Amino acid sequence: LIFSDKDFFELFDYTAEEGNLKTALENPMSVVLSKKLAVHLFGDEPAVGKIIKLDNKHLLTVTAVLKEQPSNTIFSFSSISNIETIERVQPNEGDFINWGWNNYQTFLLLDEKVNPSVLEFQIAKLFPDEERERLAELKLKPLDEIYFSNNKNFCSFIKRKSKSQVIYLAIVAMLVLVVALVNFINISVAQWRDKIKQTGILKVIGAKRSEITSSMILETLFLFIMSLLFAYYITYLI
Predict the structure, then answer these.
(1) What DSSP string runs through 7-30?
(2) Nearest to 45 by CA among 23, 17, 69, 80
(3) How far apart are alpha carbons 185 and 96 in whole angstroms?
(4) How far apart are CA 33 and CA 66, in angstroms?
(5) How far apart are alpha carbons 7 and 213 in whole angstroms?
(6) Mean pLDDT across the chain
(7) 42-83 pLDDT per residue, tens
(8) CA distances from 27 to 7, 35, 80, 104, 105 (A)
(9) Contacts 24+ apart (CB under 8 A), 152-160
């Protein structure tokens, strides 16, 4: 469960399975569920209007259900509620007046003409003088750079990975592919010697050129289709 102000669905593109996302976060104690969580809680029944209990004491009203998020999203959450809800369900956590409080991620939609560096300076001026020293390392980060960012200030619901780890895995995958190709070539050469003998015998017993050719093509096509299905199945399981 994450908390956000009511403009979340105006800033980010989501599609509603149920309900209206434009008004889903208008009121405190309202919650939007992912499709997976909605099915887990209510089965195939409509979820909008239903009540769920948070921490076994706070009642939240379901106002919308999201379609499943694409796998390449950087956000990882199963439900989202109005930011004012946190002051009611976690009154000791909703410290909105402490300048050092950094539990909330802020996203901005900038006009194309805005210079991010200038805006960073303007934002820093909003802070008290004693807080500005620790702002030197904080910068605005484009959304598409967050996934590989080393910045440790991002909240836990934002998915991130190490770029070097991805590069190492890609290199390993390429090496495995090269080894597989070499093995395939070796096996094919070994099998082709037997195939030459087989083709010679077929010619001796009177097989036509077209029959030999069609037989080889059908055999190759069969092996290709079986290999493709097998590879797809293995990949799906992994």
Answers:
(1) THHHHS---EEEE-TTTTTSSTTE
(2) 17
(3) 65
(4) 6
(5) 65
(6) 86
(7) 998 999 999 999 988 899 999 999 998 877 788 888 999 998
(8) 12, 21, 12, 19, 20
(9) 153/102, 154/105, 155/2, 155/103, 155/104, 155/105, 157/2, 157/75, 157/76, 157/77, 158/74, 158/75, 158/76, 158/105, 159/73, 159/74, 159/75, 159/76, 160/74
Please, which residues have CB within 8 angstroms of residue 127's CB and are 6 or more apart in sequence? 99, 135
Amino acid at 170: A
Output phi, psi for 96, to 5 deg.
-85, -5
pTM equals 0.65
CB count within 10 Å of CB 62 equals 24
Map tokens 């960073």 to a residue.
Answer: 120
User: Which pLDDT value is given to residue 96?
Assistant: 63
- The DSSP call for residue 236 is H
Find where tokens 């290999």 sit. Answer: 227
CA 71 – CA 53 distance, rounded (Å): 28
3-state secondary structure 71-118: CCCCECCCEEEEHHHHHHHCCCCCCCCCCCCCCCCCCCCCCCCCCHHH
Instruction: Name the token pair of 109.
Output: 């939609």
